Structure formats: structure tokens, C-alpha cells
Amino acid sequence: MTSAPDSADCLFCRIVAGEVPADLVVSTDEVVAFRDISPVAPIHVLVVPREHRPDAAATAADDPAAIGRLVAAAAEVASHEGLDDYRMVFNTGPGAGQSVFHTHLHVLGGRDLAWPPG
């Protein structure tokens, strides 16, 4: 993992390392996808890179291809969950609703999703 100052205390790093249990949906050498513990849709899965970076913008700056890997994994999650229609969301910063500062992509589906959101 990248040596970010807070990565040792990062919940998602601990899930990736297997130290904290999670309901895994997809796991590869580069990403881990697991069910959100506070879902806002019938299907709500988080896709995280194994490498710690604080948010999607930092990930895109450091490793642009990692964003593509997250989106590809989100499509795999959607297929696994039987979703034809789904939403992918990156929250960047606390004002946007990010509460765990490890890049993660929300995959939401299983119901009609209104626009605009919140």
C-alpha cells in the first residue's frame, strides 16, 4: 500500500488486508468489492483499490489506469448482482459525503434511482 500517513488506521485498508470482515462480492489482485454496511439502495457495493489513496482525484493523479480498473470491477459487480441499470458514484471530500478516506466507488442499483441525487 502507498505510505499515506493514515493508511494504517484506514478501515478499508483493514478490510482489504482481511483484518475486518466484510461481505465480499468481487476480489482481484487490484480491487476488492464488498457490500456497504449502511446501504442506500437494495444493492450497494463499494469497490476499493487495494492500494491506499485518499480519494478518486488522488488516485487519478497517481495512477489514472486505477480508475478504469475500479469502473471495470463495478461492471463485474453489476453483472454478478444481475443489474442492467446501476449508478456509480465517487464522493470526494467530507462535503460530498466521503466518510472513509480511501478511494472507493459506490455501485448502486436494485431500484429506480432519481436524478438529481441528494
Automatic annotation (TrEMBL):
Pfam families reported for this sequence: HIT
Domain HIT: 11-118
Matching SUPFAM superfamilies: HIT-like
Ranges spanned by the short sequence motif Histidine triad motif, renumbered to the chain: 102-106
Residues forming the catalytic site: H104 (tele-amp-histidine intermediate)
Transmembrane segments: none
MF annotations from Gene Ontology: catalytic activity
PANTHER family to which the protein is assigned, alphabetical: HISTIDINE TRIAD HIT PROTEIN
Name by which UniProt lists this protein: Histidine triad nucleotide-binding protein
Organism: Nocardioides euryhalodurans
